[in-house]
Amino acid sequence: MPFTSKLMSQIAEVNGRIVIINDVLDQGVIAKFAFGHFLVCGATDIKLVTVIEKDIARSTIAHADYTCFHTGPEWLGDM
After folding, report:
1. What is the pLDDT of residues 7-61, one digit of tens each?
2. Is-contact 4 37, C-beta < 8 A?
3. Cα–Cα distance, 63 to 17 (Å, whole number)
4. What is the CA radius of gyration of the chain?
5. pTM, whole model, 2 decimals?
6. How far apart are CA 76 and CA 27, in angstroms?
7. Which of 37, 41, 66, 70 would you call most buried, defined as having the most Cβ atoms within 10 angstroms of its Cβ?
8. Within 13 Å of residue 10, how many CA atoms lie on the same side as its CB?
């Protein structure tokens, strides 16, 4: 089981606000998974904070709520 899945399985109930901190927002797959899980667990307000956001088209999450740096798709190419 991937680390993220093991960690998320330990979170059963959430009341209120959640802040997800992510190092790099690339395709947004992990962020989408986390959003879905926290919504099911009762979160009412979820914010996404990233250190680096790739400026690319995504089908999962459009943008982070807060980010430090923006970069194009060529940087960190295999992430």
Report:
1. 666 666 677 888 999 999 988 988 998 888 888 888 899 999 999 999 899 888 8
2. no
3. 18
4. 13
5. 0.75
6. 12
7. 37
8. 4
